[in-house]
DNA sequence: TTTATTTACGAAACCGGTTTCGTAACAACT
DNA sequence: AGTTGTTACGAAACCGGTTTCGTAAATAAA
């Protein structure tokens, strides 16, 4: 791919390869005069250092793996921006790996990342992840891992999360205060930290209003939108039809809206809806969607910062093992009025 | 990061390093018996080949650079999925580089990619890209480039695009047929292929209805949403207020909706809106948004296929230098009724 | 002036695979 | 028996930087 190597520069300047290398790395061993000659020639010939050679010798790739379920999700898109901005400033590159919510993909990816391609990993687990063995295996190869948003509790890694339980509690209470009596919860697998915590917040809010959470109103969704659509419709057609819905992940809001449309249920008159979502367009939906908006960019940024500390083998600061950044409830029309 | 090398396997089996390497690569020089011993040990010890060592020696990275403006855009998210699926099947990895619609970022990224980090590049230029020098420079380093969606015409690379002019023509005609007389066009920089082509389609449609395109109705937007908001509001407050809008990129639809809301203009009664967009939620907006939906996944897939052919130095098939995949107009409520 | 130290550079090992080339052992063919 | 060919493997060069170590020359300290 590339022609001009250090050797070429050396030949041109009648210097040794090691001198060139040191000059380029601004070593104190090289005189200012020589340095400037080298730098000038390098610039003129557009010399680029071969990353594979450096990585091989230095045992450092300056790459960071970002392992996430998908990219077509506002939360992850924003988090990527936060990560990217942070690590780029330190000269790192990001390698984005998509699991597509599939556990075996995730396992395969982490196994591959044991080969040294990345110096560290930022990760949000898939909804089907049932164990943390693959993550432990990676960490045992001395690849530091920071989990963000979707974490596993039995992994000894740093974690950056939002206050899932409290947010969910607030969202549910918001519905209760607006008169909802039968509130449903739509989550993903309960293996998933965010799903479990949000469920707990929901349940606590109900109990706070002397309502016993009913299994009939708790839905565990799949990665398949069609199946979810069927589940949601079924939920909305049962005798004890919900008059409020807390949806724990962004993907579910459109389905709820569509299901309600097809069943001629009006939002918010018949059903009030609140969803965990970072969708910019939430305010433009029909009706505008009340959301729990997560600090996606900040979470990505913070996770990256913690990882960079680990890579510099700096000591973690107090509280870095578990960082919690608050979400906020944005009230819009989908929860408007009293029932 | 990683401990078990080929050398370790060699020691364990009393074989030479070269024999191990050949066995792992299934060379015919190695006996079946030896191969299976090697493979078994490698599996047992969870041996992973060091990608930097292979890349250094082999002068191939098996990485593909994806250079795009941003990831928080349905078109690019979907395109990434198409690309990822295609190249993963061939053992390639993707390195996603975000330009954030900034030309100097884009230049810096392409310059960096000259270092051999990637074997080829898939790219959609930023809205501020004014020249193709940086792309040419990369290609001159023998890094094949395939442009998709946002292409430059003066670059001798393969291109995968959609039928921008025809789609825009159709979208505009759809508005005309529904009675719009003063149709505005919202594009990005006219340097941008898609913007220019879509503008041309719009203008042709107007002329087909004996309407002379007016500069007052043609808006060139920026990467800054706030500025765009101001521009759009100004557009909608002029004497010759538009009664129809063709928005050339996904990002603009929310702004148009908000601007109309703030100015108390009703969609579609006062203004009809159609937007180039792959947003899944288009159907759920208030009102649901008529879109020109691009074949994002397919475009990504096709672009990747063409690039893979180039990397295999297979001859391109007829028409691969410029692949055109049609978009389709999805009519929804934002263009409903006659004016 | 002699010795110690600093400065500025080069030779060579090294990172971990890959590939070329050489060769011992054995089979096959005159 | 002598020649040719094949099989299965090892030694070593190689990719392109980085780093250690050695050293001649210049400078400082004794």
Structural description of this entry:
The structure is a homodimer of 339-residue chains. With 339 residues, chain A is an alpha/beta fold. Chain A has helices at residues 6-13, 17-24, 32-44, 51-58, 74-88, 103-112, 133-140, 164-177, 193-208, 225-237, 252-262, 296-311, and strands at residues 63-68, 93-98, 120-123, 145-148, 158-162, 183-187, 218-220, 244-247, 272-276, 290-293, 322-325, 328-330. The first copy, chain A, is elongated and about 85 Å long. The model of chain A has no long low-confidence stretch (mean pLDDT 95). The interface between A and B is large, with 50 and 50 residues. Chain A binds a DNA duplex (30 and 30 nucleotides) through residues 5-7, 15-22, 24-25, 28-31, 34, 49-50, 52-59.
Label the overall shape of chain A. Answer: elongated
User: Based on DSSP secondary structure assignment, what is the total number of beta strands of chain A?
Assistant: 12
| Largest pleated sheet of chain A | 6 strands, parallel
Look up the CATH topology of the largest domain in chain A.
Rossmann fold
